[in-house]
Amino acid sequence: MDILRIILQVLLVLSSFFLIMSILLHKGKGGGLSDMFGGGISSSAGSSGVAERNLDRITVGVGLVWSVTIIGLGLLVKFS
């Protein structure tokens, strides 16, 4: 059980880091904090390119890995 807990904790740290980085890489959509800090100055026509859609998919995938890891650690702690 200890090796499983270590693997899940390492996976949690890595997925948390990649989730933060992938969220920060997204472009601001406007109307929020991104406009306040100058993100609305170079706004495009609202079209989403291939890179933005791939980044969306990566973010959702990493978010799912993060969620499953949290649930797994919770179950491991509960039944230990």
Automatic annotation (TrEMBL):
<keyword id="KW-0813">Transport</keyword>
<dbReference type="GO" id="GO:0015450">
    <property type="term" value="F:protein-transporting ATPase activity"/>
</dbReference>
<feature type="transmembrane region" description="Helical">
    <location>
        <begin position="6"/>
        <end position="26"/>
    </location>
</feature>
<protein>
    <recommendedName>
        <fullName>Protein-export membrane protein SecG</fullName>
    </recommendedName>
</protein>
<comment type="function">
    <text>Involved in protein export. Participates in an early event of protein translocation.</text>
</comment>
<comment type="similarity">
    <text>Belongs to the SecG family.</text>
</comment>
<keyword id="KW-1133">Transmembrane helix</keyword>
<dbReference type="GO" id="GO:0009306">
    <property type="term" value="P:protein secretion"/>
</dbReference>
<keyword id="KW-0812">Transmembrane</keyword>
<keyword id="KW-1003">Cell membrane</keyword>
<keyword id="KW-0653">Protein transport</keyword>
<dbReference type="InterPro" id="IPR004692">
    <property type="entry name" value="SecG"/>
</dbReference>
<feature type="transmembrane region" description="Helical">
    <location>
        <begin position="58"/>
        <end position="77"/>
    </location>
</feature>
<keyword id="KW-0472">Membrane</keyword>
<dbReference type="GO" id="GO:0005886">
    <property type="term" value="C:plasma membrane"/>
</dbReference>
<dbReference type="Pfam" id="PF03840">
    <property type="entry name" value="SecG"/>
</dbReference>
<keyword id="KW-0811">Translocation</keyword>
